[in-house]
Design a protein that fits this description.
Elements lengths: L1 H17 L2 H6 L1 E9 L8 E4 H13 L1 E8 L3 E3 L2 E12 L4 E13 L2 E8 L2 H8 L3 H6 L2
Length: 138
């Protein structure tokens, strides 16, 4: 099942990068939860589906362009750990590159939860996974 879970997460990235919000919201479960409790910045906390939907619109409205590039997909049962690099360009032409790691929880073919971490190591440690586990896809 984890290969299918990776494909679901890839579909999420593809939809975001195409700005296809209908496709993005189709891959998330109705009870979706976005955990930004570890975030540094204006969006900090845990958000439900409706808040997530508004947040995506607000986030994209703040940038001229934004692209998420997954660095790798680490399969771990119903979890997919994704170190990601975000490339954003502000309305005044200022560019930003931000790195972090997201942990996607997949259930019944939909993304149920996304938890954001500042680093790959933080995410792996929180999940009780070692680098060896990550390389082995456990």
């Amino acid at each position: 099942m984890s290969r299918e879970n990776v494909e679901i997460v890839k579909a999420c990235f593809d939809a975001f990068n195409r700005e296809d919000w209908d496709a993005l919201f189709k891959v998330v479960a109705p009870g979706f939860e976005l955990d930004f409790s570890r975030a540094i910045g204006p969006w900090r906390g845990v958000f439900g589906f409706d808040q997530f939907r508004r947040g995506v619109e607000e986030f994209r409205g703040a940038w001229e362009s934004a692209r998420w590039e997954p660095d790798e997909f680490i399969e771990a049962g119903d979890l997919v750990v994704v170190p990601v690099t975000a490339h954003m360009k502000g309305r005044d032409g200022i560019e930003a590159v931000v790195r972090g790691t997201n942990v996607y929880t997949i259930r019944n073919g939909a993304i149920e939860r996304v938890a954001m971490y500042q680093s790959r190591q933080d995410a792996l440690e929180d999940l009780g996974l070692s680098e060896h586990d990550a390389r082995a896809g456990l």
